[in-house]
Design a protein that fits this description.
mainly alpha; Serine Threonine Protein Phosphatase 5, Tetratricopeptide repeat; 72% helix; TTC38; Tetratricopeptide repeat protein 38
């Protein structure tokens, strides 16, 4: 269904205090439509969906600076292309900078160009500083908010993820067309900072405004996951599925959350069915990195539960193979390395490690390269040791950095696979102290998720090991 309001032309954008430097009303409307779809995770068939919308926008005005910033910024945020490794993609951002200098644009637009240029170079904190500067003066600048939000997520900056929305939300009235979506964004920030009751309230209010808000569904999925309210989570996903199942990439991710509930319950057959019917087909349809990392994470969790996943690893490894040299996010690197090793693609695993080690030698201002030496390399080496059967060494590498792992990005639910990875390494280690550590870690996890059947299963296994 189309969005229930008219997209803004040049005059409307100016009236809202967000002047766009183009004379094309159609380009302005398409910019609005594209930005709206990116926030709503929704494909508006009446205007051809997001890719066609962006393409038409730039055809209407090839020199539309903010149009180029939006189109290329969205691609950059998807992390499927590296502006540092892909020379043609890198040239695009240089061209945007040059285009901005050839015409008179507003100070706000110039700041957007600078922020995107920093992000493309991997200088995420500097980019966020500029987007935050924009939001101080222009709190309804949705692109600045969208990009800052994604960047904070990529860096694992959880309070900033929450607060960047909290600061601007009062400037959006309840009657603003996208107000509900912002509440869902704020709700997710609250989940990530452990305010589960407030997150649930925000998500429910957003869904009352728009039941098809897939991001707010996603927020609720996290609330149930973090509370280990597994049956409530499954019921919620079942009851709302028709509202979000066509929301492309985020729908696949919501199905991933549903599958996690089933793994926790021990219903592995049902979890595999969701993977085979929904998650992996999404990898093939959309080619989104989120789907690739979700697939890697899902298969790893299943195998840690002792479930045979057949040749599914090879399928995922074939998809991630072309990205092992990207090194856009350490979060991605971990999942790509796991897919390569379990998919028996040692060549890709070696290439990933060699190129990552080269990147961290001269990190410059690149945020992830800077983290690489103290965090990324030990994390990846721990994976290699684990997959080689050297569990004791994996524990020694992974345990000291466990509280820094948040900085690789992703959500608490996504990074939980690394908690499980460490626990399994400790249980498999020949070192008795590591087995004791495993039980300590499980007591910690039980405190956070007292109703988790998965944690109870692991705790019993750890107890049995110590008793023998």
């Amino acid at each position: 269904m189309p969005f229930p309001y008219a997209f803004r032309d040049c005059k409307a954008w100016e009236s809202d205090g967000l002047t766009l430097s183009t004379t094309s009303n159609e380009a302005c409307k398409l910019y609005d439509a594209a930005l709206t779809q990116s926030i709503a995770w929704y494909k508006d068939e009446t205007i051809g969906g997001l890719p066609d919308c962006l393409s038409k926008m730039l055809k209407e005005d090839p020199d539309f600076v903010m149009g180029h910033v939006l189109a290329n910024g969205l691609e950059l945020m998807g992390t499927a292309r590296s502006a540092l490794k892909d020379k043609s993609f890198s040239a695009t951002f240089d061209n945007i900078v040059q285009l901005s200098k050839k015409q008179t644009i507003t100070e706000r637009e110039q700041l957007h160009v600078s922020a995107l240029d920093f992000f493309a170079k991997g200088s995420f904190p500097k980019a966020c500083s500029i987007w935050e500067k924009i939001l101080v003066d222009y709190p309804t600048d949705l692109m600045a908010l969208r990009f800052a939000y994604v960047a904070y997520f990529c860096m694992g900056y959880q309070p900033q993820l929450r607060d960047c929305v909290a600061r601007v939300l009062p400037h959006w009235g309840p009657h603003s067309p996208l107000y509900g979506y912002l509440k869902g964004m704020h709700g997710f920030g609250l989940v990530e900072t452990n305010f589960y009751d407030r997150a649930e309230k925000e998500a429910k209010e957003a869904l009352a405004l728009n039941p098809g808000d897939a991001w707010s569904v996603h927020c609720m999925a996290h609330v149930h996951e973090m509370r280990s309210d597994i049956d409530k989570g499954i019921k919620f996903m079942e009851e709302t599925e028709n509202n979000w199942k066509n929301c492309d990439v985020i729908a696949c991710h919501n199905y991933w959350h549903w599958a996690l509930y089933l793994i926790d319950k021990g219903d592995y057959e049902a979890a595999l069915k969701i993977y085979d019917d929904k998650i992996y087909p999404g990898c093939l349809s959309f080619g989104a990195i989120l789907d690739y990392t979700d697939s890697s994470s899902f298969l790893c969790r299943m195998e840690m539960e002792g479930v045979e996943v057949a040749d599914r690893w090879k399928d995922v490894s074939r998809l991630t193979k072309k990205h092992v040299e990207d090194h856009v996010l350490l979060f991605n690197d971990f999942h790509f390395l796991l897919a390569a090793l379990r998919g028996k693609d040692d060549e890709s695993a070696t290439l990933l490690m060699n190129t990552l080690e080269e990147c961290v030698k001269s990190p410059g201002e690149n945020h992830n390269y800077t983290l690489g030496k103290e965090l990324g390399i030990p994390l990846c080496k721990a994976v290699i040791e684990y997959e080689s059967g050297n569990y004791s060494k994996a524990v020694e590498l992974l345990h000291p950095i466990r509280y820094q792992i948040v900085l690789i990005g992703g959500s608490n639910a996504q990074r939980d696979v690394l908690n499980q990875y460490l626990i399994h390494a400790a249980m498999k280690s020949d070192n008795k102290s590591h087995k004791k550590l495993a039980r300590c870690l499980l007591l910690e996890q039980e405190n956070l998720k007292p109703k988790s059947c998965l944690i109870q299963r692991l705790k019993k296994k750890a107890d049995d090991q110590l008793a023998n």
